[in-house]
Amino acid sequence: QLQLVESGGGLAQPGGSLRLSCAVSGFSLGYYVIGWFRQAPGKEREGVSCISGSDGTTHYADSVKGRFTISRDSARNTVYLQMNSLKPEDTAVYYCHSKSQDYWGRGTQVTVSS
């Protein structure tokens, strides 16, 4: 059964850090592109970062370059999003997405506030 389960969200202060996890089941990471998206209240869902399962190539939105790092652990079949130097505008629900199957996780809330 195909599943993407996000975790690691929560409340962080501006300048703080959080690490999101996307646990994948039902297929192997090694063949697919996995992406992180986010949606803030009243805004459209936007792409944040993605990673290729085959060669580890990564891409980032300009708004998170230099602050967020995407990685994968093939043994755990999990994709991570390390978020540093968080800003209030990073507040959103973060979703994991498998491009080939067009399958979404249920999301995890990230709130950046003092």
DSSP strand tally: 11
State the share of residues found in helices, binned by percent: under 10%
Beta-strand content bin: over 45%
Poorly predicted ranges: none
Overall 3D geometry? globular
H/E topology pattern: EEEEEEEEEEE
Q: What is the CA-based Rg, rounded?
A: 13 Å
Average predicted confidence as pLDDT: 95
Q: Number of helical runs?
A: 0
> What is the SS-derived class?
mainly beta
Distance between the termini: 40 Å
Please describe the biggest sheet, giving its number of strands, its sense, and whether it closes into a barrel. 7 strands, mixed
Describe, in plain words, how this protein is organized in 3D.
By secondary structure, the chain is mainly beta. Helices cover 0% and strands 52% of the residues. It is built from no helices and eleven strands. The chain has strands at residues 3-7, 10-12, 18-25, 33-39, 46-52, 58-60, 68-73, 78-83, 92-98, 103-104, 108-112. The strands form two sheets. Strands 2, 4, 5, 6, 9, 10 and 11 form a seven-stranded mixed β-sheet that branches. It has a four-stranded antiparallel β-sheet with strand order 1-3-8-7, with no helix packed on it. Strand 9 and strand 10 (103-104) form a beta hairpin. The radius of gyration is 13 Å and the shape is globular.
